[in-house]
Design brief:
Elements lengths: L1 H4 L3 E5 L5 H12 L2 E4 H10 L3 H11 L6 H14 L4 E4 L5 H10 L4 E6 L2 H9 L1 E3 L6 E3 L7 H4 L10 H15 L1 H8 L3 E5 L4 H12 L6
Parallel strand pairs: 1-3, 1-4, 2-3, 4-7
Antiparallel strand pairs: 5-6
Helix pairs in contact: 3-4, 7-9
The protein binds BIS(adenosine)-5'-pentaphosphate and magnesium ion (MG).
Length: 212
C-alpha cells in the first residue's frame, strides 16, 4: 500500500469530466495529496491579490492562464510536497507537461473520458460548497435543503463559457493524451457512469481493485 502513497499521478480530462469528484475519492482511498490548479487559481482570485486580479478575466472567459503564471503558483506546492501528489487540471498544455517533467517524476496519467453532451450537463448543473469544498450537482448529486443556500455557481459554469472551455481543452490539452500514451503512462477510464462506478473503474485500472 505504501507504493500507492508514493505515486505521482496526473488526472486528465475535459472540463466537467469529474476530475475534482474523483480526486476527492482517490485522496480519501489512497492518501495522496490533491493539487488542483483550478482551486489554487480560484483561491488567488477570491483573495483579491494582484495576481488574482490579473487572472480573473481570463478564467471567467474560459481561457487558460499563462503557463508561466500557473507554474509560479504551483511551484511552491511542488517544492513543499513529498511524492504522492495527484495533479488535477495540470498540466493542460504541452509546455506545462515539459515544465512539470523537470520537477517531478510522474508514474501514471489517469484520463477520465466522458462524452461532450454529458460534460455540458455536468458543468451547468454544478454547485460548490465554499465551506467544505464539496462538489454537488443539482440533479446528479443534489445538496440537502440545509446547505443549498450557501452553494456557489462558478462564473465559468455557464453554457457559453463551458463551450469555450471545451474548445480550449480540445486545442491545448487533448494533445497530452497522445503524448502520455506514447510514453506508456496513460490509463484510460470511461467516466460516463455514476461517481461510484467511475471510482470502482479507477480502483480496478490503477490500483488493482484495491480500495483502502
Ligand atoms: P479547473 O477548475 O481545473 O476546471 P476544469 O478542468 O474545467 O474542470 P472542472 O473543475 O470544471 O471539472 P471537473 O473535471 O473537476 O469535474 P467535477 O468533478 O467538478 O480550471 C478552471 C479554470 O482555471 C480553467 O478554465 C483555466 O482558466 C484555469 N486553469 C486551471 N488550471 C490551469 C492550468 N493548468 N493552466 C492554465 N489555466 C488553468 O464534476 C463536474 C460536475 O459533474 C459536478 O457537479 C459533479 O457533481 C458532477 N459529476 C462528477 N462526476 C459525475 C458522475 N460520474 N456522474 C454524474 N455527475 C458527476
Ligand atoms: Mg475540477
Amino acid at each position: 500500500m505504501s507504493d500507492l502513497k508514493n505515486m505521482n499521478l496526473i488526472l486528465l480530462g475535459a472540463p466537467g469530466a469529474g476530475k475534482g469528484t474523483q480526486a476527492k475519492r482517490i485522496i480519501k482511498n489512497y492518501g495522496l495529496i490533491h493539487i488542483s490548479t483550478g482551486d489554487i487559481i480560484r483561491n488567488e482570485i477570491n483573495s483579491k491579490s494582484e495576481l488574482g486580479k490579473e487572472v480573473q478575466e481570463v478564467v471567467s472567459n474560459g481561457n487558460l492562464v499563462s503557463d508561466d503564471l500557473v507554474f509560479k503558483l504551483l511551484k511552491s506546492k511542488i517544492e513543499t510536497s513529498e511524492n504522492g501528489c495527484l495533479f488535477d487540471g495540470f498540466p493542460r498544455t504541452l509546455n506545462q507537461a515539459s515544465m512539470l517533467n523537470l520537477e517531478v517524476e510522474i508514474n501514471k496519467v489517469l484520463f477520465i473520458d466522458v462524452d461532450d453532451d454529458v460534460v455540458m450537463e455536468r458543468i451547468t448543473g454544478r454547485r460548490l460548497d465554499p465551506e467544505t469544498g464539496n462538489i454537488y450537482h443539482l440533479e446528479f448529486n443534489p445538496p440537502s435543503e440545509e446547505i443549498k443556500e450557501r452553494l456557489i455557481h462558478r462564473k465559468d459554469d455557464t453554457y457559453e463559457v463551458a463551450e469555450s472551455r471545451l474548445n480550449v481543452y480540445r486545442e491545448e490539452t487533448e494533445p497530452l493524451i497522445d503524448l502520455y500514451a506514447s510514453k506508456g503512462m496513460l490509463v484510460k477510464v470511461d467516466g460516463n457512469g455514476t461517481p461510484s462506478e467511475v471510482e470502482q473503474k479507477i480502483a480496478d485500472e490503477l490500483f488493482n481493485g484495491v480500495k483502502v
